[in-house]
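Listing S7. Sequence submitted for prediction.
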Amino acid sequence: MIARAHRTAAAALIALAIGASAPVRAQDVEAVNYPNRPIHIIVPFPPGGPTDILTRIIGKEMMASWGQTVVVENRPGADTTIGAEVVAKADPDGYTLLAAMDSTMVLNPLLKKELPYDPVRDFEPISLGAKNISVLEARADSAFHTVQDLLDALRARPGKLNFGTGTTNGRLAALLFAKLTGTTFAIIPYKGSAETVEGLLTGSVDFGVDGMASSYPLIKDGKFRALAKLSDRPLDQLPDLPPLAEAAGAPELGDISTWIAFYAPAGTSSEITGKLSHFIATIYADPVVAKRLQDAGIIAVSSTPGELKAFVHSETERWGNVIHDNANYIFK
């Protein structure tokens, strides 16, 4: 009887172990077969900006390599929170991804009291996608040939000129620029690069900040004039363009350009996020893809999920300090 009881107990334990491991094996099988149906990548901006351009390049490579349709969905609005909420509530199966920005994962949580998502709780990191260099620019037919020209006009006509940008980062840059240079101007918030470009072209705004991916074609065609870059990193397309901190005599500005990263909903397996991360690193190493990204004005940077998590943590600390030190000015 004792032996039979032992055998029965052992059989029960084995059955329990098999039952407990079945979902894990199912996840493993799903990861091995991933992807086996269309992937949707949510871009929280209108078409045409740096995030949209980068995502479409990566999506095209995914389709070519994996033979599955990749649908890029533009869900602009509310400083990227609309698109982020869609992914935060999606199934954690790797088939709905987010092309996030610094505003999505760092600035919104620091600046907004209520968000429909939590950047840590609701997402699994995949990889960095790019560290953009944004530029301060004006129309080519304007009187602004240098940052000093712009500063002279701002001081001669306080509060009369309009500034446009499509990102939270750009608005913070404008506030800090105004504070550090003792100038005042109206800040016009746009939903993304396409609206910023239109605002500059039509004269709705006199100057603005946008990413190189959307700015460079217009600079090259002689429609826009770049006055400065919001970084001290090299910019191959415009090697003589000065950093704004230097040109404005405001070293405290530092590097305030944007970045793009890719995320999946929380609960997505590490096998799938790792597969996606590895894929991005692999295509970035392809000279043909690298040339396409460079020609689009995108400075491609990949990472592991762990490296992205650490990077976002450091960015949150950096911007948290900037916002804390300038709270009275930013939130006035």
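Caption to Listing S7: primary sequence and predicted structure tokens for the chain studied. Residues 1-16 have pLDDT under 50 and may be disordered. The chain has 13 helices and ten strands.
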